[in-house]
Specification:
The structure holds 2 protein chains of 2 kinds.
Chain A: E1 7-17, H1 21-32, E2 37-41, E3 55-57, H2 61-71, H3 75-82, E4 83-89, E5 99-104, H4 106-118, E6 123-127, E7 130-136, E8 139-145, E9 149-158, E10 167-170, E11 173-176, H5 188-194, E12 199-211, E13 221-223, H6 240-243, E14 250-254, H7 257-265, H8 271-274, H9 288-294, E15 302-307, E16 314-321, H10 326-334, E17 344-346, E18 349-356, E19 373-375, H11 385-403, H12 417-428, H13 452-463, H14 468-490, E20 492-493, H15 497-505, E21 515-516, H16 517-521, H17 543-554, H18 556-573, H19 591-600, H20 605-609, H21 616-628
Parallel strand pairs in A: 1-2, 1-9, 2-6, 9-19
Antiparallel strand pairs in A: 3-5, 4-5, 7-8, 8-9, 10-11, 10-18, 12-16, 12-17, 12-18, 13-14, 14-15, 15-16, 20-21
Helix pairs in contact in A: 1-11, 2-11, 2-13, 3-4, 7-10, 13-14, 14-17
Chain B: E1 6-9, E2 18-24, H1 28-35, E3 36-37, E4 46-54, E5 57-67, E6 78-84, H2 87-99, E7 103-104, H3 109-116, H4 122-133, H5 137-144, H6 149-174, H7 185-214, E8 216-222, H8 228-238, E9 256-260, E10 263-267, H9 279-283, H10 285-292, E11 297-303, H11 310-322, E12 326-331, H12 338-350, E13 356-358, H13 367-377, H14 394-415, H15 420-438, H16 442-453
Parallel strand pairs in B: 1-7, 8-10, 8-11, 11-12, 12-13
Antiparallel strand pairs in B: 1-2, 2-6, 3-4, 4-5, 5-6, 9-10
Classes of the chains: A alpha+beta, B alpha/beta.
């Protein structure tokens, strides 16, 4: 080893460590913004891997995918290329919570994303384990690989997922490993500590994969995809090929008393209950042992069986992640109807890994006090491919903008789920792997998945990730929406017999005088589609345009309320705080608030109000202070 | 920041056993040493027995405690004189302290200093902000009581139920593939109706709470020489508790503050009534009625020696019709023949005037009845101070009102068959307003509740 000579393999603008869902978006964004970019991955065959469930989207996660797409990211397009089942969830509920979710072909997802990365101008993808961050003063200047190569850069995006000192635990067996049997990154953690990055330890887990040929699916409920497929990417809005793609099914089954008995009888062998696992696991992703213990009154739990791809027999057993010993797992899975004779192909496991405390980041995702060092994805304490991608694109954009001396892109909570996600991580922090949920968004009626392009594509265009061509197309769509909204508001429906018969047939009350079409559309039993017969002047319009126009009118009142709430929210957001305020000097702030505010240095009173430990009373004190200062 | 040493009476002015005069500031000890003689040594955090002297005159035997900065309520040097209760002694002692270099404290000034010196604990801080803005001493006292345990508890409970409902809605939204039973509209309607009732009940206690906090604002109305001043003195002497506030200790001029049992009467001229003697004569029925609407209780006083004229009757009828609270006293009942007195009563009865009490202030007759009547009118005895929730803070009342508004809106939406997550927007807002009373963040609570109550995930 002492003979090892360090050597340089080049200079880049931006280096991305990791090529998972965060790393890929970061690298693509940076390269697309014209920055010479290098993306490192421990094993190229794991680029954009899905080590957990083979699906993209779901409630709020689908929103994130749409938003990343609207900004010019890749996850939506890649999901559209590789899905094998598509569903719009929550269709019976309000438009704010309609959520797109697809089952993906895991290998194809990897192949397509790798292909996109390989063909991206300005981007080099390289297989190497990064072991050291090089720093000069408080500025990062490059990285070093395990073999000894040095790469220099002006900014670094760290997207190491669950690889940092990864440790897999199955029963009382544990070993150093990254996810899906890939080797872990054991050395980089020390380098982070050396340059002053604090680390903590989180835990997550995944269920077993089981061969479909060993299942009796007749004992399960088949779950098919939607007939009408909605693509993720706004670019694919009128892609007929996607809309007519052949789909595969998922299957639903349940645990039972027998399953639960096997689990409780073997609890002492669970590393979580025996104290072997110390990392903090997510509440929303509990292992089956957790569920059985914590919700002992529930006689059964749902189990979803999802295909990993078209050319594999591996099925993902959603709802049964576990870290029980392998032999107990086999018994446990076999107690479930349909899985009696099943053969496991990969056992369930828990994984522990190093991550950072996200409150040490700025809203730009740059690490406080270390110039040019950005973090994105699971290493920030989040979970999920979509959450990772959302942070990835923002980190990639901001690393690039830093080099150009441009201010960072910071989306606020009223603009995007991405804003909610990053603000939650950076301002509130998290004590467990963070999952996006619609309930975390205060203004979710505005943050719909259908209008992500209206919210964010102009920003994506300004940044430079949305082409002029796509932007023109977007403006055209927006014009169509505005025109249709205006037409519906201007159209008067007369109380003819025909109209009233039609209304009554739809369970709606008759009209006595002429009413605006928009007022009819606001009735809960009426919609754009079933009003077709009496709305004779309508043009043929794309589905996305109709959806948008309909929501805008139908939910006008609520949207107005929400806009007022946003106004209120902006008041506090617009009260800016400078980073030179010493909160120790503000008498009347609680001790905890002083410490937290000094650590976080929030940019606005609004952000300050979301820091845990800062109470409304502290905010009042802060406002008095600002008034006294004439701020 | 001001460095003056301030003083004020720290206990309610009443005929309680002990009154406390609080002095805060760097001269506290110096002032005490000038007026207080003791055999013991007054060291920090101790309480010693001794005597208060006004020059050579012994005023009272007292206990004095001393808290050294910064370990005191305000963070400054504090001395407290525990003197014998009774307003006269307390008042004289305070005056002595003021003569010796202290400045009379502004309303809420001790708390303000505590706050500015970083001595206030978190839960009090919000009340303090209000305190600083409080315009009157009474208001200040209300604010300092505002974070009363009962209110927080009750609001927390209310909010808890709403957050549980929200969590249930969120679960069905965020985990649509799971088999949790969907939220049933009928249940939501029941729950919302319940909460609306509960909150409305709390809002209704506001008036009562204000009266308890601030006392009942009373106007004694009547022609000259019917006995208004005598009544005032009688009421005051009745419990030996007449209190003339030291000028400047309060900014709203309570002319007389009288304790009747547990009720405090503020016989004030805020409404400008007592001075006008015969307001009916002076400003006319309509205007005087408007004035009278500003008080909680009108004591309309006649002398049995006089006659009831048209204007009296007209004003009384209007008071009755407006639903104002009033008591009619017929004074000097001992001075007239029974037949005249009966005519008097009959005349009032014919005009539907209730709450008539014959009295003889001089002979102390009927005063007990008056006292009972006041207590009866203000429902005093029905209130369980310890356990009943009473809202005393206008801000709290407003927030409660807003939350009811939003709950009603939610109810409307659900009845109109709108999707449950749309309904939840309003419920969320309602809980937000409730949360503002106790200082909590809705979305965090909802998320926590989801994980506490529902079993989800892969």
């Amino acid at each position: 080893m002492e003979d090892k000579k360090d050597y340089s393999l080049g200079n880049y603008d931006v280096i991305v460590i990791g090529a998972g869902h965060a790393g890929c978006e970061a690298a693509l964004a940076s390269a697309r913004l014209g920055k010479k970019t290098a993306c490192f991955v421990i094993n190229l065959d794991t680029l954009a891997n899905m080590p957990c469930n083979p699906s993209i989207g779901g409630t709020s996660k689908g929103h994130l995918v749409r938003e990343v797409d609207a900004l010019g990211g890749e996850i939506g397009k890649n999901a559209d290329k590789t899905f094998i089942q598509s569903k719009m969830l929550n269709k019976s509920k309000g438009p704010a919570v309609h959520s797109l979710r697809v089952q993906s072909d895991r290998r194809m997802y990897h192949i397509e994303m790798k292909n996109t990365m390989e063909n991206q101008e300005n981007l080099d993808v390289y297989q190497a384990e990064i072991v050291e961050i090089l720093k000069e003063g408080n500025k990062v200047i490059g990285v070093k690989t395990k073999i000894g190569a040095t790469f220099y850069s002006k900014a670094i995006v760290v997207a190491t997922g669950t690889y940092l000192k990864g440790k897999v635990i199955i029963g009382d067996v544990s070993y150093e490993s990254g996810p899906d049997g890939v080797f872990p990154a054991n050395d980089l953690s020390q380098s982070f500590l050396d340059i002053g990055v604090e680390l903590r330890r989180f835990k997550t887990g995944t269920p077993a994969r089981i061969n479909i040929n060993t299942m009796d699916l007749s004992k399960t409920e088949e779950q098919k995809g939607d007939e009408k497929i909605v693509p993720f990417s706004f670019e694919n809005e009128d892609n007929e090929e996607i809309k007519h793609k052949k789909q595969v099914s998922c299957y639903l089954t349940y645990t039972n008393e027998k399953t639960h008995k096997i689990i409780t009888d073997n609890l002492d062998k669970s590393p979580i209950y025996s104290g072997k696992i110390t990392g903090i696991g997510p509440r929303y992703c509990p292992s089956i042992e957790d569920k059985v213990v914590r919700f002992s009154d529930k006689p059964r739990h749902q189990i979803f069986i999802e295909p990993l791809g078209e050319k594999t027999s591996e099925m993902y057993i959603q709802g049964m992640s576990s870290s029980l010993p392998e032999e107990v797992q086999i018994q446990m899975y076999r107690s479930v109807p349909g899985l009696e004779n099943s053969k496991m192909m990969r056992p369930a496991y828990a994984i522990e890994y190093d991550c950072i405390d996200s409150t040490n980041l700025k809203l730009s995702l740059e690490y406080k006090g270390i110039d040019g060092l950005y973090f994105a994805g699971q290493v920030n304490g989040s979970s999920g491919y979509e959450e990772a991608a959302a942070q990835g694109i923002i980190a990639g954009i901001n690393a690039s903008r830093k080099i150009d001396n441009l201010p960072p892109i910071i989306l606020d909570r009223s603009q995007a789920y991405i804003g909610v996600l990053i603000d939650d991580l950076v301002t509130k922090g998290t004590n467990e792997p963070y999952r996006m949920m619609t309930s975390r968004a205060e203004y979710r009626l505005m943050l719909r998945q259908d209008n992500a392009d209206i919210r964010l594509t102009p920003i994506g265009h300004d940044i430079g990730l949305i082409s002029d061509e796509r932007y023109e197309k977007f403006l055209h769509k927006k014009q169509l929406i505005d025109d249709e909204v205006k037409r519906i508001k201007d159209t008067i429906i007369k109380p003819t017999d025909f109209v009233n018969e039609h209304l009554e047939s739809l369970g709606s009350s008759k009209i006595i005088s002429g009413v605006k079409l928009s007022d009819l559309l606001k009735r809960s039993e009426l919609n754009y589609e079933n009003l077709a017969k009496i709305d004779t002047n309508r043009k043929k319009l794309p589905d996305a345009v109709i959806e948008e126009a309909e929501i805008e009118i139908k939910y006008e009142g609520y949207i107005k309320l929400q806009l007022e709430q946003i106004e209120e929210f902006k008041k506090l957001e617009n009260k800016k705080l400078t980073t030179d305020i010493d909160y120790e000097q503000i008498k009347g702030l609680s001790l905890e608030a002083r410490q937290k505010l000094n650590k976080q240095k929030p940019l606005s009173v609004g952000q300050a109000s979301r820091i845990s430990g800062v109470s409304p009373a502290d905010i009042s004190v802060l406002m008095i202070f600002l008034n006294q200062r004439g701020m | 920041m001001s460095t003056s040493t301030i003083a004020a009476i720290g206990t309610a002015l009443s005929n309680s056993g002990i009154s406390i005069i609080r002095i805060s500031g760097e001269d506290s000890l110096k002032i005490i040493n000038k007026i207080f003689k003791t055999k013991a040594t007054l060291s920090p955090n101790s309480i010693v027995f001794g005597k208060i002297y006004d020059k050579d005159k012994l005023l009272d035997t007292v206990l004095v405690s001393y808290f050294k900065a910064p370990r005191s309520y305000t963070g400054e040097d504090i001395c407290e004189i525990n003197c014998h209760g009774g307003t006269q002694i307390t008042k004289e002692t305070l005056e002595l302290v003021l003569e010796n270099g202290a400045v009379l404290a502004e309303p809420g000034e001790f708390s303000k200093r505590a706050f500015l010196n970083g001595k206030m604990d978190l839960s009090q801080a919000e009340a303090v902000i209000n305190l600083i803005n409080a315009k009157t001493k009474t208001e200040a006292r209300v604010f300092s009581n505002q974070l009363d345990g009962n209110i927080s508890k009750k609001i927390k409970k209310l909010r808890e139920d709403l957050i549980y409902l929200l969590a249930h809605i969120e679960v069905s939204v965020d985990y649509p593939e799971y088999d949790y039973e969907e939220v049933v509209p009928e249940h939501v309607i029941d729950l919302l109706n319940n909460k609306i009732d509960e909150i409305t009940n709390i809002i209704d206690t506001y008036e009562q709470g204000r009266i308890i906090q601030n006392g009942i604002n009373v106007a004694i109305v009547g022609k000259p020489n019917v006995g208004k001043s005598s009544l005032l003195n009688k009421l005051a002497n009745y419990e030996k508790a007449i209190v003339t506030d030291i000028p400047g200790t309060t900014r709203d001029i309570v002319e007389e503050r009288v304790n009747i049992g547990d009720v405090v009467l503020n016989i004030s001229d805020t409404a400008g009534i007592r001075d006008t003697e015969d307001i009916v004569e002076k400003i006319g029925v309509e205007k005087s009625l408007k004035k009278l609407e500003e008080v909680d209780l009108v004591i309309y006083m006649f002398s049995a020696l006089d006659e009831i004229d048209e204007k009296d009757l007209k004003l009384l009828s209007r008071i009755e019709n407006k639903g104002l609270k009033y008591i009619v006293l017929i004074n000097k009942m001992d001075k007239v023949e029974k037949s005249i007195f009966d005519t008097f009563m009959k005349q009032l009865e014919q005009n539907d005037i209730k709450n008539v009490i014959p009295v003889s202030v001089i002979n102390d007759e009927g005063i007990e009845k008056l006292k009972n009547k006041i207590q009866e009118i203000f429902n005093k005895n029905d209130l369980d101070y310890e356990h009943e929730l009473i809202v005393t803070n206008a801000r709290h009342k407003d927030l409660l009102k807003k939350s009811v508004e939003f709950l009603n809106q939610a109810l409307q939406e659900i009845k109109n068959n709108n999707p449950i997550d749309i309904v939840s927007i309003y419920i969320k807002d309602a809980s937000k307003y409730l949360g503002e009373i106790i200082g909590a963040d809705v979305s965090v609570d909802v998320v926590n509740k989801i994980f506490e109550k529902f079993c989800l995930g892969k």
